[in-house]
Amino acid sequence: MTLAMPTAEPHHPLIAQLFSRHGFRELQASDIDAYAGAGHTLLVFTEDPMRVRETLDLAVIVPEVVAAFPRRFRVGVLLPEAARAAQPRYGVRRWPALVVLLDGAYVGAIEGLRNWDEYVQEFARLLEAAPSRPPSIGIAVKAAGSGAACSH
């Protein structure tokens, strides 16, 4: 398995610290299955902080989440291009987002920013939850011979 090393320094310093200071791994969408392995994996979906300012908040929050739940997660960070490529697989609709996997299978996601207490409650729940089917991205599908559209 070959995992991408963090790319050169075009990242904001807070994003770069996720790799240099906290030891999280930069992933491409194609790396997720090989990286997830056994146990819980936290995928961090980032976006360009100039487009989605909350990305920088998440760069500070994720290390705190990991510290609040020691030795419970391996963390992979998807930079914007990789996050957009993986988005349909996990039904992510809002950035920044955190996706939790168990043994490589989808458990749940937290999209956007939350209050700290909500993060703690939601991660406690996700760490006890069984894998489930990721939500679809809600593409409207028109049934044959029907004028109505439905979402599958």
Shape label: globular
Q: Count of DSSP helices?
A: 5
Task: Name the helicity range.
Answer: 25-40%
Q: Strand count, sense and closure of the main sheet?
A: 5 strands, mixed
User: What separation lies between the terminal Cα atoms?
Assistant: 34 Å
Strand order of the largest sheet: 1-3-2-4-5
The level 1 CATH classification is Alpha Beta
Structure description:
With 152 residues, this protein is α/β, with parallel strands linked by helices. It has helices at residues 13-20, 32-36, 54-68, 80-90, 116-128, and strands at residues 25-27, 40-45, 73-78, 97-102, 105-111, 140-142, 149-151. The chain has one domain (13-151): 3-Layer(aba) Sandwich (Glutaredoxin), CATH 3.40.30.10. It has five helices and seven strands. It starts with 12 loop residues before the first helix and ends with a strand.
Task: Summarize this entry quickly.
The chain has 152 residues and is of the alpha/beta class.
How do the strands and helices of this protein lay out in sequence?
Elements: H1 13-20, E1 25-27, H2 32-36, E2 40-45, H3 54-68, E3 73-78, H4 80-90, E4 97-102, E5 105-111, H5 116-128, E6 140-142, E7 149-151
Parallel strand pairs: 1-3, 2-3
Antiparallel strand pairs: 2-4, 4-5, 6-7
Helix pairs in contact: 1-3
